[in-house]
Design goal:
mainly alpha, Regulator of G-protein Signalling 4, domain 2, 12 helices, about 0% strand, flat, RGS10/12/14-like, Regulator of G protein signaling 10, GTPase activation
Length: about 220
Amino acid sequence: MRQRKLLLPGREKGRGFQKATSEFEKVAGETQRCPCCQRRMFNRAVNRLSRKRPPSEIQDINVFASTSQQCVTGAVKWSISLENLLEDPEGVRKFREFLKKEFSEENVLFWLACEEFKKIQDMQKLRDKAKYIYATYLSSTSTTQVNVEGQSKLNESMLDQAHPLMFEKLQEQIFNLMKFDSYKRFLRSDIFLKENGQKVSGGSEETVAKRASIVYNT
């Protein structure tokens, strides 16, 4: 009886696929089985080929990524993302120094206060911290009020029913404001360039931020 070839959906021309197909056809030629059995046989052939791959090939990408992250430290890491900068105490200190010159240090202070607020578990301490954040950064009478939408919806009566996420939307607004505005200027500032031993002037010299964007494709 003439053997019919099973047409498989999504057939590719990759070397691994061709090996699996050859093994499948070899086994299928030795015995007659239903299409369901043939499909299972093909899947087993693909699995066997996958198990035969050298571990080095499978782990190369992960090892490279892990090694690259370990090698990135200091201001080079700050230039990759605002998140990285805010995770580093020294990065926060330099960023605060820059924002102070721009008269907007309250933005990062508010963000940091909200991060601390979300970690508080004691209810009384949570209420006290909520009142402090409101009075310092959200009250219309505060000299360090942040520029966000929605603070008018908060009032002191709500602070007695404080919960860890009550400032989350306002914190997100401030984060995006810093990310797309002051953070970009910080990467071009004298403070950042000096931290990396870069010359403040000199258009031909490539900045650390630019080099990092090329290396990490960000």
